[in-house]
Specification:
Strand content: under 5%
Number of helices: 6
Helix content: 55-70%
Protein name: Retrotransposon Copia-like N-terminal domain-containing protein
Pfam families: Retrotran_gag_2
Radius of gyration: 22 Å
Largest sheet: none
Length: 144
């Protein structure tokens, strides 16, 4: 089954990280186990020991199949919704969780830093004597 991703703007960087993350998280939650794989709630089952019984082998096989299906769906969704420049960050990632964590480590931190800078500018923002009120309000709106 081909995954359809319509109306999702591709992740370009910090400028659209928040909206991209919201949209992709919503889509991942609509795919059985995909979001859980990304955040590590569902992990790849550990290999069985040689002496494992038939029931354990059957359970392992079912769990591995479910994890693999969710991981492939999540990986496909992530790859289809990012720009090629961002994709370069993920070439070493083997699982959807690795991709998700890599994107978070790069863009979530940058977003926090940008928010901190804006917050700092906001706290020191004041009207300059040479600006009239219209210009002052325009500068304030650009800040926020």
């Amino acid at each position: 089954m081909e995954l359809q991703v319509h109306g999702i703007e591709k992740l370009r960087g910090t400028e659209n990280w928040i909206l991209w993350k919201f949209a992709v998280k919503s889509l991942l939650r609509g795919i059985d186990g995909a979001y859980e794989v990304c955040i590590g709630e569902i992990v790849k089952p550990a290999p069985l020991r040689e002496e494992a019984g038939d029931a354990d082998r059957a359970e392992y096989k079912a769990n591995l199949k479910a994890w693999d299906k969710a991981d492939r769906a999540a990986s496909q969704l992530i790859v289809k919704t990012i720009d090629s420049k961002v994709l370069a960050l993920l070439v070493a990632c083997e699982t959807a969780q690795e991709m998700w964590l890599k994107l978070h480590s790069v863009y979530q931190q940058q977003t926090k830093q940008a928010a901190h800078i804006v917050q700092s500018e906001f706290f020191v923002f004041k009207k300059k004597p040479v600006d009239d009120m219209v210009h002052h309000i325009a500068k304030f709106e650009q800040l926020i």
